[in-house]
Amino acid sequence: MTDTAISPLRQRMIEDMTVRHFVEKTRTDYIRQVRSFAAFLGRSPEDVRRFQLHLTESGVSPPSRNAAVAALRFFFTVTLDRADLAQRLTLVHEPRKVPLILSPAEVAQFLEAAPGPKYKAALSAAYGAGLRVSEVVSLKVCDIDSQRMLLRIEQGKGRKDRYAMLSPQLLALLRDWWRIARPPVWLFPGQNPVNPLTTRQLNRAFHAAAQQAGITKRVTPHTLRHSFATHLLEQNIDIRVIQVLLGHAKLETTALYTRVATSTIRAVMSPLDRLTLLRPEHQPPA
What is the spatial distance between Cα 16 and Cα 80, in angstroms, rounded to a whole number? Predict the structure, then answer.
């Protein structure tokens, strides 16, 4: 498909997503997926089955294939008004994996290795408040409520506002950083102070800190959020409270952390141990 042919469709799809208040990242991802589909076919999009087979044989991961399906479903159903084509799209079942968790000692070692006070404060916010990377970089100075000890998260995942916890130690780190840089708007400004820190920059700082701390586990910035939830669960914090702090819409999403909260698992008594009939008796062998 030539640029001349796809440009009107691209513009129409962008308008459809704008009307529905899709965030910029989603719009960019959807356009990229449809462009990849059109480039594969070399003509007007219609052979959905062959494209999905191509993705599978190319070794594309299930999350990426599902992202392509979501983008194409929107494109066919809304932009082209061809729901019949969307019916041929199939989501790939993705098994839920147990998230990798850092121990409290590893988290402390990691944060101490952060490259500078700005990144130490930003990464501490990711762990101390259980924030996503996109939520950390979007924090503004006015989002810190030191009176109620809360962080205001504006337009988090799903375009929802919520409040996150603000611990005294995190508040002290944020204040130290503010005294150094005096950021006027964004709590963690980027190279150009007019713009916030990018997720890519924070991701690079995360991996630099992990390497400096000698952490060999395959960690990502989201590991800090996983560790936050798991450590709270191991402190016997009610799972519904953790659900609210994380901003999860469904409790079963939060319940995933019960599979990695080792102290919680160890504290549970097996029903086998409650049976009295099976307890060994000290009797001489027959």
Answer: 11
